[in-house]
Task: inverse folding
């Protein structure tokens, strides 16, 4: 089933509350997916800096001395902020790729959840309220974010199988549904040079969008291409550095509700996820049409 | 009569005096008391109850509100609902002052359900009787497999509406999405606006006097007679070519 949420703030006054609002939306969707939860938060990054969010099953060992070792390897400062099983490593923006390679060389057991100037991704197995509490999501500020509560259908209940999936800098995607041709699409994308960390169908959708955008498509064009190239059921909610997109397959079985006010655009699998948002009583609330890309950019 | 352990405010059948006088509207706070208490309370009311007027506050998009009501109650929901509101309704009049989530009035048997806002997917699905009115728009698969229910939508309906609909009437004041009436049986579809496309075996049919008459009644009961006149509608129905397998139709299945 899965529950997905998204929030794109237009009003900077709400930015300190982004994490709290998204956490509330996510917890409300627990009964759509109690297996695991994940959230991507786009904060206001530091100019000239970029971040890697890294996950480890053994954070005590893997994160000890990691920043220093990475800093040495890339010849520039690296700062670490540990949050439970994740660490956010901040480096100079032009050292991001080098830092990523250094991390994987120094600690081969870790997983890179996200890379980019603004995005941070936190995900784990367990109930959404526990996952959100472990990472202190409630206290995070930001401009936009997406979240997912997972009921596993196409692959195992593991941290790696949790959403969001990020396959490009500052890009990420959450998915409600299941894809039936993900293996063949994965093979095509691998042949085109994309790499994958899991057997998950949703990672294929994320990589598909990244690949299209590498080829020059806008996010909107890449989202529209999912309608012809991906088979199965889906509602995708997508985040980019400065944008937020939603698309549903042409059958549109998977539920979706959106709300827009002067202050924000919000997405939920169900209306319940939106009821605590400020001014929801007077928001424009609608169901996104099937096979139609919706997109907001700041 | 079921035995409910939770608080039903003394409204179980055995607790209600035979000749209790009308006490006015019963207000039920769903957030404070929960769904099981709500539906348990409504189910426990006997058909001849005097406690007929109910108001449900704080629905906050919750699921299964006032499902399976089996008494002539007048129920008002103050806010938007989640999945399956008023499902399997029998005899009750249920009015939602908000929007309704997927499956509103699913498998309704009789009575009336009125949604002041929009309805999500498969509104009135498999309904066997009664009247469902949606003052806003309905989403995809409205009236899917309807089996006798009447549905009046003041706005538009989404794709695959009235798919495999068997009997009853679907009246749409606005537009219909793709594949209207796919694999339709004997339900009658009346659309005032544009139909994006007709599904397999669904065709436009002549509007005869009996249809105008039926439509007039449906518009009146659907609180839409001030908005539309019967002669503005076009009628769609089954070409009856898919009833029996015919190899010449294989491509249409």
Result:
């Amino acid at each position: 089933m899965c529950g997905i949420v998204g929030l794109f703030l237009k009003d900077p006054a709400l930015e300190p509350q982004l994490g709290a609002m998204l956490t509330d939306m996510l917890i409300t969707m627990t009964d759509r997916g109690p297996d695991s939860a994940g959230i991507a938060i786009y904060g206001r990054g530091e100019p000239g800096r970029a971040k890697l969010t890294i996950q480890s099953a053994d954070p005590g060992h893997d994160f000890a001395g990691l920043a220093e070792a990475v800093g040495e390897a890339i010849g520039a400062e690296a700062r670490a902020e540990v949050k439970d099983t994740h660490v956010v490593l901040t480096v100079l923006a032009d050292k991001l790729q080098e830092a990523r390679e250094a991390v994987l060389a120094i600690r081969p057991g870790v997983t890179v959840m996200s890379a980019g100037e603004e995005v941070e991704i936190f995900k784990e197995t367990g109930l959404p309220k526990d996952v959100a509490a472990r990472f202190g999501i409630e206290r995070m500020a930001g401009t936009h974010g997406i979240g997912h509560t997972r009921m596993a259908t196409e692959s195992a209940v593991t941290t790696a199988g949790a959403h969001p999936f990020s396959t490009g800098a500052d890009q990420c995607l959450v998915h409600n549904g299941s894809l039936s041709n993900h293996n063949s699409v994965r093979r095509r994308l691998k042949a085109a040079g994309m790499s994958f960390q899991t057997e998950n169908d949703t990672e294929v959708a994320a990589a598909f969008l990244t690949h299209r955008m590498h080829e020059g498509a806008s996010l909107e064009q890449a989202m529209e291409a999912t309608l012809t190239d991906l088979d199965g059921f889906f509602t995708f909610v997508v985040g980019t550095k400065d944008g937020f997109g939603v698309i549903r397959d042409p059958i549109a079985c998977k539920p979706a509700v959106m709300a827009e006010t002067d202050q924000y655009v919000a997405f939920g699998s169900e209306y319940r996820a939106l009821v605590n948002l400020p001014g929801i009583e007077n928001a424009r609330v609608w169901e996104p049409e099937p096979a139609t890309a919706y997109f907001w950019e700041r | 009569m079921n035995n409910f352990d939770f608080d039903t405010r003394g409204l179980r059948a055995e607790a209600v005096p035979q000749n209790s006088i009308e006490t006015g509207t019963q207000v039920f706070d769903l957030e404070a008391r929960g769904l099981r208490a709500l539906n348990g309370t409504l189910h426990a009311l006997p058909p001849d109850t005097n406690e007929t007027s109910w108001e449900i506050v704080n629905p906050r998009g919750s699921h299964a509100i006032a499902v399976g009501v089996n008494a002539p109650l007048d129920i008002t929901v103050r806010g938007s609902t989640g999945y399956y509101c008023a499902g399997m309704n029998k005899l009750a009049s249920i009015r939602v002052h908000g929007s309704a989530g997927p499956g509103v009035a699913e498998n309704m048997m009789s009575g009336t359900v009125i949604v002041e806002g929009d309805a999500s997917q498969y509104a009135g699905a498999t309904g066997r009787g009664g009247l469902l009115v949606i003052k806003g728009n309905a989403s995809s698969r409205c009236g899917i497999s309807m089996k006798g229910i009447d549905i009046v939508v003041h706005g538009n309906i989404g794709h695959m509406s009235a798919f495999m609909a068997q009997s009853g009437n679907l009246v749409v004041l606005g537009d219909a999405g793709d594949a209207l009436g796919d694999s339709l049986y004997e339900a009658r579809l009346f659309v005032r606006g544009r139909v994006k496309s007709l599904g397999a075996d669904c065709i436009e049919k002549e509007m005869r006097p009996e249809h105008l008459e039926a439509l007039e009644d449906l518009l009146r009961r659907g609180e839409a007679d001030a908005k539309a006149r019967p002669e503005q509608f076009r009628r769609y129905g089954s070409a009856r070519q898919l009833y029996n397998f015919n190899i010449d139709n294989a491509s249409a299945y």
Q: What stands out?
A: Confidence is low (pLDDT under 50) at residues 1-22 of chain B. The two ends of chain B are 46 Å apart (CA to CA). The longest helix of chain B spans residues 209-221. Helices of chain B lie at 30-33, 35-44, 209-221.
